[in-house]
Amino acid sequence: MKVLLADDDAERAGAVAHILAADPGLTVMRLKFGESLADAVASLAPDVVLVDMARPDRDALDGIRQVAALNVRPVVLFVDEDDPAFMEEAISAGVSSYNAIGMPPPDVKPILRAAVALFRRHQQAQDDLKQAESRLHERSIVDRAKAILIKQRRLSEPDAYKWLRRTAMSRGRRIVDIAGEVIKDLEGNAG
Question: Which of 6, 97, 130, 143 makes an SS bond possible with 115, Cβ 3.0 to 4.6 Å?
Fold first, then answer.
């Protein structure tokens, strides 16, 4: 797993990098001085981003927002002080795991792995939701086309569906595409 470590405090970043480097399954990369978080994520393609902030900083959340918008990755955030309002902002910005810690840094490997697992689960749920919405939309198109065929051709509901299916098969197309043409033809004739 490739980990991008973003921390302005060189001593703390070194301690965290040392902990992570002890695990041969992890490759630790560091944010270069002056490099934006979004640029580093785009060029290095880490599996997880670890951001450590001594003091919660709302301006630093802009970099996390850019990562969430452009190069979606799990982001683990460590802060020295717990601030519930900042935590809400951080999660809204795209943070997968919010952790208030003190010094010395804890063994962060389990936290990183948990954040990646939670992130993947959330992404899968988002993908499943998009697929379900797409299927519902397609079904509404097919149902609308069936209603048109029932009215125009005086077909039963099963016969209207059979007509759509037969037409799709004969043309080598999807039923929803044929249904869309039926709707478009009705709208074209109505206009």
Answer: 97
**For position 167, which CATH number holds?**
1.10.10.10
| Domain count across the chain | 2
pLDDT digits (tens, 9 = 90+) for 1-12: 899 988 877 777
d(CA 128, CA 130): 5
Would you call 78 helix, strand, or coil by DSSP? strand
Segment 8-37 mean pLDDT? 83
On whether both 92 and 7 belong to a single domain, the answer is yes
- pLDDT, tens digit, 9 for 90 and up, residues 105-129: 556 666 777 777 788 888 889 899 9
Q: Which residues of 20-40 are buried (b: 16+ CB within 10 A; e: fewer)?
A: beeeeebebbbbeeeeebbbb
Q: Are residues 31 and 101 in the same domain?
A: yes
Question: Vertex 30, ends 27 and 33: CA angle to 5°?
Answer: 165
Which amino acid, residue 181?
A: E
Query: Is the model's pTM score more than 0.90?
Result: no
If we measure between CA atoms, which residue out of 33, 19, 12, 6 comes closest to residue 111?
19
Residue 116 lies in a domain: no
- Please list, in sequence order, all residues whose beta carbon lies within 8 angstroms of the beta carbon of residue 78, skipping any fewer than 6 positions away: 50, 51, 52, 53, 99, 100, 101, 105, 108
pLDDT attached to residue 150: 94
Rounded CA gap, 113 and 97, in Å?
A: 10
